[in-house]
Design goal:
Blueprint (H helix, E strand, L loop, with lengths): L8 H14 L5 H24 L2 H11 L1 H42 L6 H9 L2 H29 L3 H17 L3 H8 L3 H50 L1 H11 L3 H43 L1
Helix pairs in contact: 1-9, 1-11, 2-4, 2-11, 3-4, 4-5, 4-6, 4-8, 4-11, 6-7, 8-9, 9-11
């Protein structure tokens, strides 16, 4: 049974939220990808520490000099960052692809499970890896050029506006690349061209819809910062009580209170961010599906 076509951006957004309400298990996909990226980051830090062992570096410095040591550390860091960046981009793209395949199946009346969506996405692994690398490389080059211009000309307003415009244009132009790659099985060049075409026809509902999704999640962001605000307020409102408690327990109560509250804030914000990313991919798929249906 075909889904009823939404008439405006509110209906597109409502359909997006309805998918998530009916099957919250799909949030496991962005959550697991987030954990994988965190694991890779920790692995990078551990390996960097291992390969830049202080005793080894001191011995190395005596033999080859301080500049050689800095070059070695810099080299390991760059190699590690390239690895982290490449794998992280692929993990992010792959997770988004699973969300898109799952969402498209619901829209077309097939309703794949997460496992089935994963299995279908695995068929496009090579293409997704190339796309993740390509998208990230373009973004990285834009940022590097922007940084170089900042060094030479400072933070000139026209330059900042120009590079911001290029970055936003690239992001907008590639919104629908993944659905096209997965559903239409196009190559990357064709997918970019098709994505630009779809966005040019749907840009109003696309941009306004994303703002609407963000606005609906705003109360959760406000809720997230409340523990930190309350912790700070408590520290300023009852310093004597906290000092006496600190002496009794022999631990840094204000620091523990603030750290715990801030940690809770970060966790909630991270969770809200994952929900937003999931909703965003579902939203793109909904727009893509109905733009595709309108052409057929």
């Amino acid at each position: 049974m075909e889904e009823k076509t939404p008439k405006n951006y509110q209906e597109f957004v409502e359909k997006t939220f309805s998918f998530l309400r009916k099957d919250k298990k799909i949030l496991l996909v962005p959550f697991i990808s987030f954990l994988v990226i965190i694991f890779l980051l920790i692995l990078f830090i551990v390996l960097l520490y291992f390969f830049t062992d202080i005793r080894f570096l001191l011995t190395y410095a005596k033999e080859f000099g301080k500049e050689a040591v800095m070059g070695k550390v810099f080299g390991y860091t760059i190699l590690g960052l390239i690895f982290l960046y490449t794998i992280g981009s692929f993990v992010n793209v792959f997770a988004n692809a699973i969300l898109i395949r799952w969402s498209y199946s619901k829209l077309s009346g097939k309703t794949l499970t997460i496992r089935q969506s994963l299995k279908g996405t695995l068929k496009h692994t090579k293409k997704l890896f190339i796309w993740g690398l390509s998208w990230g490389l373009v973004s990285l080059i834009l940022n590097l050029i922007r940084g170089e211009y900042r060094k030479r000309a400072g933070q000139a307003v026209p330059t900042e506006i120009g590079f911001s415009f290029l970055g936003i244009t690239w992001t907008f132009a590639t919104y629908f690349v993944l659905p096209v790659l997965l559903i239409e099985n196009k190559d990357i060049k064709q997918a970019i061209a098709r994505s630009v075409l779809i966005f040019s026809k749907t840009w109003v509902k696309n941009i306004v819809g994303q703002f609407s999704i963000g606005f609906r999640l705003l109360p959760w962001i406000i809720l997230a910062v409340m523990p930190t605000i309350l912790a700070i307020a408590t520290i300023f409102a009852a310093p004597d009580f906290l000092i006496n408690l600190e002496r009794t327990l022999n631990i840094g109560v204000p620091m523990i209170l603030l750290s715990s509250a801030f940690g809770l804030t970060i966790i909630i914000i991270a969770m809200v961010g994952l929900v937003f990313l999931a909703l965003q991919q579902i939203f793109f798929t909904v727009i893509y599906y109905y733009s595709e249906s309108a052409q057929s």
